[in-house]
Amino acid sequence: MTSGLAEKKREKYDAILSAALKIFAEYGYFGSQVSKIAREAGVADGTIYLYFKSKEDILVSLFREKLGNLVRMFHEHIHEDDRADDAIRKICELHFTELEKNVDLAKVTQLELRQSSLDLHREISNALKPYIQLIEDVLVRGIEQGVFRPDLDVKLTRLLLFGAMDEVVSSWLISGRRYSLSDQVEKTVDFFLRGLRA
């Protein structure tokens, strides 16, 4: 009984997040109302507040869940004994292919990472930390393996890698998605590795 109830609660939580993703992608965070999210999720407005404190909480939870899923996927595909350059390729490949498959997520991540209030931006940055940490861990491993230059500034380089992938996604969206995002993986990784390799 309890697990069935928990499962139903999780289904509603997921339905609300999926609806929020669609609404935020269509109207932007500031143009979205909780009532639109509720209508899209097929729940009453008040139901939203049983799961989330505010619209801001919905957005932060959305980032935490979706980016958390990406980090889990990376961990499933990247193993401790993998070469770091292969791991960088896998991170870029998953980043581009997952956002290409989920255009609403690509829109929300690109828009809300840039346009949110300072407090909201801080919360979203916290949700991003595991992803940035994953990139840093791969860079450190690459230095230890002798694959990457020993003089890399790891803290700066992790931001450059994330920022470059982020910009490729933004350009793809701005172009109206006129080309394949996943087709950009090899050129992007080649650029990264020319700067990283020992």
From TrEMBL:
Top-level taxon of the source organism:
Bacteria
Enumerate the InterPro entries for this protein. Answer: Homeodomain-like_sf, HTH-type_TetR-like_transc_reg, HTH_TetR, Tet_transcr_reg_TetR-rel_C_sf, Tscrpt_reg_YsiA_C
Q: Which Gene Ontology terms cover its molecular function?
A: DNA-binding transcription factor activity; transcription cis-regulatory region binding
Q: Which UniProt keywords apply?
A: DNA-binding
**Where is the DNA-binding region?**
33-52
Q: Which PROSITE patterns match?
A: HTH_TETR_2 (PS50977)
Protein name per its UniProtKB record:
TetR family transcriptional regulator
